[in-house]
Amino acid sequence: MKITDVKSYPLMYMKESPVLPRPFFLVKIETDAGLFGFGEASSAYGHSFPLVVKEIMDGTFRRILIGEDPTNIERLVTKMRTYIWGYLGSTGVACQAISAIEIALWDILGKAANMPIYKLLGADKDAVEVYATGAANFTVDFDWHKRFFERNLREGFTGVKIRVGKSKDWDEEFVRLVRKLVGKDIHIMIDAYMTYKPETAMEMAQRFAQYKPFFFEEPLSQHDLSSLERISRLSPIPIALGERVSSLYAFKELVERKIGNIFQPDATIVGGIKECLAVCTMSEAFSIPCIPHIGGLSAVGYAANLHVALASRNVAMLELDGADWQPMRDEILVEPIFDTSKCLVNGKLTAPEKPGLGIDINEDAFEKFPYERGPVYTDVFPQYGAGRL
Fold it and tell me: Which of 73, 88, 356, 378 is a plausible cystine mate for 110, CB 3.0–4.6 Å?
């Protein structure tokens, strides 16, 4: 079996609330055996710069992959690294682009073996508990968020994640109201999206602690490792991070410096399914739990991270986007198996049983979601990631 083509798909739809573009990047690998696979690259929230990944795909990866055996996944990952790591670095967009190809190769391998990927990887379980990520929306009142989270709870999610970063007092009051809403038996997670300064992050950890959150995510800049090391040691709430950590080697540095109490790797960011599983396995050896990140991916990214979660002993929970309308999750599938209004069983997402990723993509639907250059996430939330609050 040989690779005959690598096709790139930058896609987009307009998110409803708040209104902002949601860009994505998908790739399709075709073979002379009639088998094909899909993969996805992410920059943490879909992909904010899909044309950057497209240039890597069309300009380099397509050329060096055509004619190769798609089942030689590790050899092809090494080949891609050799061509771009020396010039783009070994993290960031380099790993994101490799992620898309690697996931598509696993999709092909699973189809060739007539097995779902999680079973090829050894299958620790066949379902995983899920929590719902709330919306970053500071322009609406609490009743809007109340309706959002009440729907998540009706669907069966066992936890909800609160997006903070407006002001210190607003953030604490929001957390208090959500805890009152969900009660004591539902997990609440808090995500600050790197908005706080180190001293503010420590203050807010103390203020949030009384509401018993499950974790405090990205309290400050991912680049300020010294401050992250300190808050990981002193915070009364476990510190979670990882969606912006884009290689096994970068996670290794976090382990060595004792940064983070919970890791959130993402197969579409960290280098693919095998690399994400390696992060989970390494973390297990140091008693650091992993909760794979799905910050609003397409069905391809959902599937990839689900297979990692199902194959890892170190994963007991998975993040899912809690938004109701997600066309790149549902409308590009022949059968929308990740529609959380229907698919959750006892608060868990169950394993797909079809071969490979276990999803059937309707490529005709791509025409409904053409990518257009325009505003990115930071245009709508300039304070997010700034580390200034």
Answer: 356
In DSSP notation, 285-337 reads HTT--B----SS--HHHHHHHHHHHHH-TTB-EEEEE--S--HHHHTTBSS-T
Band the pLDDT of 29: cuts 50, 70, 90: very high
Angstrom distance (rounded) from CA 269 to CA 297: 11
pLDDT at position 17 over 80: no
Classified as helix, coil or strand, 49 is coil
Give the type of residue at 13. Y
pLDDT at 137: 87
- Please identify which residue in the block is written with the tokens 């990981």: 232
Q: Which of 84, 34, 47 is nearest to 63 (CA)?
A: 84
Whole-angstrom distance, CA of residue 116 vs CA of residue 156: 25
pLDDT at 228: 97
Residue 49 CA: distances (Å) to CA of 97, 139, 257, 266, 273: 11, 26, 31, 17, 21
The pTM of this model reads 0.97
Secondary structure letter of residue 58 according to DSSP: I
Cα separation, 204 vs 355, whole angstroms: 46
8 Å CB contact between 235 and 216: yes
- Distance of alpha carbon 112 from alpha carbon 57, whole angstroms: 24
Q: For residue 342, what are the contacts with CB-CB under 8 A and spacing of at least 6? A: 336
- pLDDT for the residue numbered 107: 98
**Helix (H/G/I), strand (E/B), else coil: 339:** coil
DSSP 8-class letter at 368: G
Structural domains for the chain: 3-115+374-380 (3.30.390.10), 118-358 (3.20.20.120)
pLDDT at 381: 79
Say what the pLDDT of residue 19 is. Answer: 84
- Average pLDDT of the segment spanning 349-371: 97
Q: What is the DSSP string of 240-290?
A: EE-TT--SHHHHHHHHHTT--SEE---HHHHTSHHHHHHHHHHHHHTT--B
- The string of pLDDT tens digits covering residues 321-339 is 999 999 999 999 999 999 9
